[in-house]
Amino acid sequence: MTARLPLPASGATPVRVMTVAGSDSGGGAGIQADMRTFALLGLHACVAVTAVTVQNSTGVTGIQEIEPSVVAAQMRSVVPDIGVSAVKTGMLASGPIIDAIADAAVDLRIGRDADVPLVVDPVCASMHGDPLLAADALGALKERLFPLATVVTPNLDEVRLLTGIDVVDADTQRAAAVALHALGPRWALVKGGHLRGSDVSPDVLYDGTGFLEFPSARIDTPHDHGAGDTLAAAITGALGHGYAVPDAVGFAKQWVTRGLAAAYPLGAGHGPVNPLWRLDPEAD
Ligand SMILES: Nc1ncnc2c1ncn2[C@@H]1O[C@H](COP(=O)(O)OP(=O)(O)O)[C@@H](O)[C@H]1O
Ligand SMILES: Cc1ncc(COP(=O)(O)OP(=O)(O)O)c(N)n1
Q: Residue 21: which of 173, 171, 109, 153 has the closest Cα?
């Protein structure tokens, strides 16, 4: 499978998708990571901002949440007008914001049993451990958003918070996928990026019947900021093009692996995954 999606003809309206997420002032994660991936895949991306973070390559030092009604209003403005064929959520900051997004998603027919697939990346903290979701919002995430999700994409820290399972190997990764699936999403993807002792980075996808494994060689880089966002955005883009979930995950896995191989240093901390590799005329 190639790491490309079909491009629109010049002047033709591209496939449209939407990200509901926080802004990363450093440009490596959040909305900025989503927009980079969406643009380089040839998609038109709409945005509902949930929070503005004060963030650089060393961590997050401030968060300004957006009023929940304004988050939902961005969705309610864009979807009926522009039309989107897939939606992704990232940093959601608080329970009231999650409630507003879930209400809007139901009204706008976004979700696993509706018209528009929904990718829920349950962002809880930055890679430096700075909280990006209020501790009392986990319940809303599980009870309001997970049952609407086409696919959820937690990392292993998020898996621990959501299920209590400490993933250390293939068996516990599968057990976590089962526990996550029981929370209501159509598919659960347990990402293995944090299994740092392994020479592969295995992701496991589960739909209640069988497991699909997405291994990839582990890239030796400290510059992995925004990897989760980039993966989830690429899944969303592929779903927007009508891919089935397993094919969308396979596509996105290739996309993020190429981005990790091309990652660059930035600032004093961790640099970002780099979707700009797609601009290399030599790239296949
Ligand atoms: N060093 C790495 N080499 C190859 N793939 C990686 C590496 N780190 C993360 N990934 C992949 O990037 C994606 C994001 O993973 P992860 O780091 O677990 O999420 P997050 O960025 O949300 O913490 C997953 O597909 C994971 O397997
Ligand atoms: C605004 C914002 N959203 C999400 C994240 C976390 O992004 P993620 O892709 O999970 O990457 P890392 O934090 O693991 O690099 C963020 N930091 N900021």
A: 153
